[in-house]
Amino acid sequence: MAEVIIVPDAAAAGALVADEIASLIAADPEVVLGLATGSTPLPVYEALRPRLEGVDVSRVRGFALDEYVGIDPQHPESYRNVIRREVVEPLGLTPERIHTPNGALETIEHAGDDYERAIAAAGGVELQILGIGTDGHIGFNEPGSSFASSTRVKTLTEQTKRDNARFFDSIDQVPTHCITQGLGTILHARHLVLLAFGEGKAQAVAGAVEGPVTASVPGSAIQLHPRVSVVVDEAAASRLRFADYYRYTWENKPAWQGL
Ligand code: F6R
């Protein structure tokens, strides 16, 4: 079962996860990180910045979860640009070492396989940061996605388009398709860290952590993984049946165990 850590707010979550990532980088300067976009991981990236000052991060490698298909590469909301702006530049990572699936139409037919090969060639992802959609998606694996899926093109649900319309001028500008790591790809990462904040995520979190394992709630795939940390604020934890047990477990966690 996932370890669920209920924190007071997003900043506390960011600090906790950033500590873990900073120690991974200290232990292995070439560590492969799995990066997410959207609002949720921003406190992690912010908290990482001071922790990495003076640290040589030039060899850190990274793979983003997803990209919009057919989006203008210059568009500020292409995930390649988001990752550059929110992660690569502020943390001083080496751009060539940080990858995003290629959403260009000309090469889309083999872009998924190319990405899988690149992740495998890097030796796989050590720690994968995940957010969760209100419909339960992780990456852009919308409800119904196969647990065995690899990086491929998916169609965004209306719900996801509505949720992401805030990054665009209107919902009509949100691309219809994306290319996303599959649930199978995500499950290969060695440590999954899923973050969620706010009441709007409470149902998706409860479904992912405690609901039946079902393709209808893609986030429930995390229940199949041996090492998962779910870091949530009180509002996102509000529908968890075993919340008291998670608090008790965290308070009594032996110091040597780490995240
Ligand atoms: C982003 C991603 C998505 C988001 C999810 C939540 O790379 O893969 O699964 O994590 O849509 O988005 P936010 O964090 O904006 O609520």
From TrEMBL:
PROSITE patterns: GLC_GALNAC_ISOMERASE. It is an enzyme of class 3 (hydrolase). Residues 10-223 form the Glucosamine/galactosamine-6-phosphate isomerase domain. Keywords: Allosteric enzyme, Carbohydrate metabolism, Hydrolase. InterPro entries: Glc/Gal-6P_isomerase, Glucosamine6P_isomerase, Glucosamine6P_isomerase_CS, NagB/RpiA_transferase-like. The record marks 145, 152, 154-155 as: Part of the allosteric site. It catalyses: alpha-D-glucosamine 6-phosphate + H2O = beta-D-fructose 6-phosphate + NH4(+). Allosterically activated by N-acetylglucosamine 6-phosphate (GlcNAc6P). The active site is at 66 (proton acceptor), 135 (for ring-opening step), 137 (proton acceptor), 142 (for ring-opening step). Pathway: Amino-sugar metabolism; N-acetylneuraminate degradation; D-fructose 6-phosphate from N-acetylneuraminate: step 5/5. SUPFAM superfamilies: NagB/RpiA/CoA transferase-like. The keyword Metal-binding does not apply. The keyword Zinc does not apply. Catalyzes the reversible isomerization-deamination of glucosamine 6-phosphate (GlcN6P) to form fructose 6-phosphate (Fru6P) and ammonium ion. Belongs to the glucosamine/galactosamine-6-phosphate isomerase family. NagB subfamily. This is Glucosamine-6-phosphate deaminase. It comes from Microbacterium horticulturae. The gene is nagB.
